[in-house]
Amino acid sequence: MKAAVLEDWKTLHVRELPDPTPGAEECVVRVQCTGICGSDAHIYAGHHPTAVRPLVMGHEFMGKVEAIHSRERTDLMPGDRVVVWPLLTCGRCRACRDGFRHVCRELKVLGVHADGGFAERVKVPVANVIRIPDGLSDAAAALVEPFAVGLHVNRRAGLREGDAVLIIGGGPIGFISGLVARWLGAEKVVFSEINPARVAQLEGHGFTVLNPTDGPVLPRAMEMTGGEGFPLVYEISGSRPGVLLATGACGVRGTLCLVGFMEGRPEFDCVACILKEITVVGSRVYTLDEFRETPGLLLGKMESGAFDPGMLIGDRRPLKDLDASLQAMMAGELPMKRLISFGVETVGV
Question: Considering just the CA atoms, what is the radius of gyration of the chain in Å?
């Protein structure tokens, strides 16, 4: 099979690898399309703290079951369209025992610590495989993973119907978190974003954007809330200015949800958190239940007209274009998501 192998940081080649064979309670998924994530760019550049190499990256993938070896999953058959929960957990640590496997002490992720979906085939545990509805397109299915992230962000923040949300960072995960917040009943979703293409995308979908190039964001954020600040703030940019804005714009007894990874040890206004009794929570990936819930959520929003994959996906490219696509992402030249397609549904999104 063909696979894009990261042989060293910034050194990626399409190679011919042996086809995987499923062991006990495993299956082989023939990949149809895989989304390129910002995490992939960090791994490619050597900035991810725990990624291994050589590695086949890619954790946002969908495909069809090609072979299966399982007594437990009698519901799965060759040809079934599926997505894969890409988390590999120990099952022994306290987090796993308490039902929070997504924060397992020994967490591994397909495409980060084990071979993932930038390959024609990938071997996965059958317990991680989720069948998807027939009405969900391949493109939409490839977005299940990032939408599960957005669902978890909103759940961690404790969003309630009627809440106002400030999202700092309008890239794909920020945009998705905003869409999910809107779907869950947020009355107002406001973004802070500086990239012109992202600003245009967000405004094109009806979001209010506070652009730092137009002047300081904090006074405008406070003015929008009558001086009270936002009850919910999601920091997704992973930037020093974003973190400082987050504590300033969060209202009294509000919740600040940290999502974006930051380099080093950024400044953080602990005094603001104390004086305003801000609740600070982290959000990491998603639970298995949230991942299972997401295909149905997307299908429902597609059927209602509230969502179309083209809102996020700019284009599709063959596997040979992955290296150039990662370089374009790092250069800020991909405002929308790109899928790597393995010859299925290659026209449009």
Answer: 20
Give the start-to-end residue ranges of the domains of the chain.
Answer: 2-143+312-341, 149-282
Please state, for a pLDDT cut of 90, what percent of the chain lies above it. 94
Kindly report the CA angle at 176 between 146 and 246, in degrees rounded to 5? 110
Q: What is the pLDDT of residues 233-270, one digit of tens each?
A: 999 999 999 999 999 999 999 999 999 988 778 889 99
Q: Which CATH architecture has domain 2-143+312-341?
A: Alpha-Beta Complex (3.90)
Q: Which pLDDT tens digit goes with each residue over 136-184?
A: 999 999 999 999 999 999 999 999 999 999 999 999 999 999 999 999 9
Domain 149-282: assigned CATH number: 3.40.50.720
| Residues pairing with 65 in the sheet | 29
Total count of residues recorded for the chain = 349
Put the strands of the sheet holding 250-258 in their side by side order. Answer: 208-210, 188-192, 164-168, 230-235, 250-258, 279-282
| Strand-pair category, 208-210 with 188-192 | parallel
How do residues 8-35 score in pLDDT, each as one tens digit?
Answer: 999 999 999 999 999 999 999 999 999 9
Structural contact between residues 155 and 309, judged by C-beta atoms closer than 8 angstroms? no
Half-sphere exposure of 127 (CA within 13 A, CB side): 8
Q: Is 73:92 a contact under the CB 8 Å cutoff?
A: no
Q: Is the dihedral of CA 318, 10, 176, 283 positive or negative?
A: positive
Q: How far is CA 145 from the centre of its chain?
A: 6
- Residue 60's SS3 state is strand
The C-alpha atoms of residue 307 and residue 299 are separated, in whole angstroms, by 9
Map residue 143 onto helix, strand or coil.
coil
CB 337 within 8 A of CB 172: yes
